[in-house]
């Protein structure tokens, strides 16, 4: 008998019990006076017949569909942030929920279509995710459901899960201080737009606050800082070349992300200088490139999988007030050493 034709009545006949008794057992509801042997007969009959519950009918009774919508801009097709989805998938599976994933690629018309399709399926809640940590506006159609923002905030104060970028900045600077670097620490990647427009970035300002707090606690301050148009290798390269013409030359560089650090490495190599023998380098994100640089790059990792997991937990637990910061861990590699 095919799975799609097996009914509760079929299971009841196989188990020799009433439909009501079988329904109570399979739905785990209390109050049945059936023996343990009768319970086993029900489960055995359901397994033998390949019975699957009617989810649509159950959802009408419970008003729950055991599905979660995961709507993002470019997370799903990005290797770097795919961990957000992996973490959410794992947490949903542990709670016997299915994750329905839609990626908009920034197309607002398709986003509306995807959201309508999710809502039509009566999802139990929505995770609305962004690739870059930023403030965004949530489509009004989503607000009829429980919503948790992932890697984002919103002007209306919806519950959100974010990486703790300020703590990460403090960790990066503290790591250099602990290795003996003090007044010759430089930052590559200052960017006024990223630091002052939360719709562009929340990470830049938070990382700088953490860096400056750690240096202030140590009674010192930045030796140099270089502004960059974007956080890409070519701007890291030109920034490091400019730093090499300043006096005194920095003994350590904090890069605002790993792609900038890649450019910094190239500029140092072109100048005949080594990492970390001449200049220590530390960064943020733990992009896959970080472990492949030589020497491997020490960086503070964005906790994508724990963030995705936390978003699902908040959504299903209903404990959705406020902002949750997920700690970022330092990946200690080979790019930091005491100053020469």
TrEMBL record:
Keywords: DNA-binding, Repressor, Transcription, Transcription regulation. InterPro entries: HTH_LacI, LacI/GalR-like_sensor, Lambda_DNA-bd_dom_sf, Peripla_BP_I. The keyword DNA-binding applies. Residues 6-62 form the HTH lacI-type domain. SMART domains: HTH_LACI (SM00354). It comes from the Bacteria. This is Alanine racemase. It comes from Plantactinospora endophytica.
């Amino acid at each position: 008998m095919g799975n799609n034709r097996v009914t509760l009545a079929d299971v009841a006949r196989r188990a020799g019990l009433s439909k009501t008794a079988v329904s109570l057992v399979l739905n785990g509801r209390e109050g049945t006076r059936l023996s343990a042997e009768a319970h086993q007969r029900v489960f055995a009959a359901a397994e033998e017949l390949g019975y699957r519950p009617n989810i649509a009918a159950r959802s009408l009774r419970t008003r729950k569909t055991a599905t979660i919508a995961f709507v993002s801009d470019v997370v799903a097709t990005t290797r770097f942030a795919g961990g957000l989805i992996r973490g959410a998938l794992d947490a949903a599976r542990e709670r016997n929920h299915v994750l329905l994933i839609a990626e908009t690629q920034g197309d607002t018309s398709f986003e509306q279509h995807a959201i309508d399709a999710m809502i039509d399926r009566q999802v139990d809640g929505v995770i609305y995710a962004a690739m870059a940590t930023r403030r965004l506006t949530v489509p009004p159609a989503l607000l009829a459901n429980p919503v948790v923002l992932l890697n984002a905030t919103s002007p209306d104060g919806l519950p959100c899960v974010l990486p703790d970028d300020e703590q990460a900045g403090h960790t990066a600077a503290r790591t250099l201080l602990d290795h003996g670097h003090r007044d010759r620490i430089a930052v590559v990647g200052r960017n006024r737009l990223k630091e002052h427009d939360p719709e562009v970035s929340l990470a830049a300002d938070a990382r700088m606050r953490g860096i400056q707090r750690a240096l202030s606690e140590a009674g010192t301050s930045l030796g140099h800082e270089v502004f960059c148009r974007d956080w890409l290798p070519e701007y890291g390269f030109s920034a490091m070349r400019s730093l090499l013409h300043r006096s005194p030359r920095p003994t350590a560089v904090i890069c605002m992300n790993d792609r900038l650090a890649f450019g910094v490495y190239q500029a140092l190599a072109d100048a005949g200088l080594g990492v970390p023998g001449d200049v220590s380098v530390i960064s943020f994100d733990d992009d896959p490139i970080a472990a492949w640089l030589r020497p491997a790059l020490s960086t503070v990792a964005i906790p994508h999988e724990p963030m995705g997991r936390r978003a699902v937990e908040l959504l299903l637990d209903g404990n959705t007030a406020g902002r949750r910061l997920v700690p970022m861990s330092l990946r200690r590699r080979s790019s930091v050493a005491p100053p020469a």
